[in-house]
Amino acid sequence: MAEVIFDHVSKRYGSVVVLRDLDLVVRDREFLVLVGPSGCGKSTAMRLVAGLEEITAGTLSIGGRVVNDLAPRERDVAMVFQSYALYPHMSVYDNLAYALRLRRFARDEVDRRVRDAARSLGIDALLGRKPRELSGGQRQRVALGRAIVREAQVFLMDEPLSNLDAQLRVQTRAELIRLHDRLQATVIYVTHDQVEAMTMGDRLAVLNGGVLQQLDTPQDVYDRPANLFVARFIGSPSMNVLPARLEAADGALDAALAGQRLRLTPAQAAAARALPDGNVLVGIRPEHLALADGVAPGVSLSGRVELVERLGSELLVYLDAAGATLAARLPAHAAVSRGDALTLAVAHDRLHLFDPESERALTPDG
Q1: For 307-318, what is each residue's pLDDT tens digit?
Q2: Integer Cα distance of 53 and 58 in angstroms
Q3: Structural domains of the chain sorted by starting position, each given as residue range(s) with its CATH number in brackets
Q4: Once rounded to an integer, what is the mean pLDDT over residues 47-70?
């Protein structure tokens, strides 16, 4: 396998910049997930690796070789698309074998690769069937198999699970992780689904507006978002973000939020004092809120419940607090109803602070 290096890579269509000055190293045998909203540049980055788009500026290397001017067939990459793109008139076996036959591999080698890939994906009993005789999950495995038989340096996967129902997505995610462990392949995986990103990637590369926002392990991206965009994009429900003023009180520093206050830890206060005008954005994850016995100054917020979503295993509660809607993740059997006045304890040592101007995180340790 091989590492993939984006060295100040940009892509524009006329005056429209789709990918801007991307510096990124995908490590050898890594499962890297490119994640971000629609139009953020993640699929374009993958197509640049595949050679399906030309690079506007910068250098792209695969396995130590610059590939800017190489045709797709010369790059030794295999791609799995969002659509299955199977040949309907061919059997599963022939779909898997097609690319190898085009390259004039020996018949025995074609058969070995096809059957090895089919066994690894659990579709060896389907080799004689046509695509119309397969379920969506089986078709997706065949599409994966067509990439696997290539035994390429790099595997590219562009939202391959988006056409599957929820249960199949979970099942196929697990299969892809096991497959990566077996193949020890370099994989670049594109998705807008943060659950896929968090559960599958060795590292996440979060993109927005064609710009890399953060590159780190899934847990570190979640715990220590680099900026407001990452904080809001990663996590469901999204992080609560409340505007506040910094005010000194009792020798400490508080974040004052529309008549309510949260006491900052010494580390948070030290970071917040760098703000020139005293305005700050306070981020609170829904799981860092809990039912409180009473109002505790500095470590609780109060409001009125606007919506309760009962998910069986938990409640998602939305309340009007501190002049904004606050989402909280609470136990399934909590006695909470719409219209209730509610006080929530805040894990104030888990607050995230952001500069309102630059939107950069002020507390790298969250």
Answers
A1: 999 999 999 999
A2: 13
A3: 4-232 (3.40.50.300), 238-354 (2.40.50.140)
A4: 95
The residue among 230, 202, 267, 240 whose CA lies nearest residue 33 is 202
C-alpha to C-alpha distance for 32 and 217, rounded to whole angstroms: 9
* Structure token pair of residue 42: 């993640």
CA distance 141 to 285: 36
- Cα angle 76, 80, 84 (rounded to 5 degrees) comes to 140
Q: Where are the beta strands (DSSP E) in the chain?
A: 4-13, 16-26, 31-35, 57-62, 65-66, 77-80, 154-158, 186-191, 203-208, 211-216, 240-249, 252-257, 260-263, 279-284, 289-291, 300-310, 314-321, 324-331, 341-346, 352-354
Q: If residue 88 lies in a helix (H) or strand (E), which one and from where to where?
A: none
Strand order in the sheet with 57-62: 16-26, 4-13, 57-62, 65-66
- Give the orientation angle of helix 136-148 with respect to helix 166-183, to 10 degrees: 20
Contacts of residue 103, defined as CB under 8 A and 6 or more positions apart, other chains included, come to none
Which letter does DSSP use for residue 361 in this model?
B
Give one DSSP letter per residue of 288-322, joined into a string: GEEE-SS--TBSEEEEEEEEEEE-SSEEEEEEEET
For residue 366, is pLDDT > 60? no
- Categorize the per-residue pLDDT at 364 as very low, low, confident or very high, splitting at 50, 70 and 90: very low
Mention every residue, 6+ apart, whose C-beta is less than 8 A from residue 114: 93, 96, 97, 100, 127, 145, 149
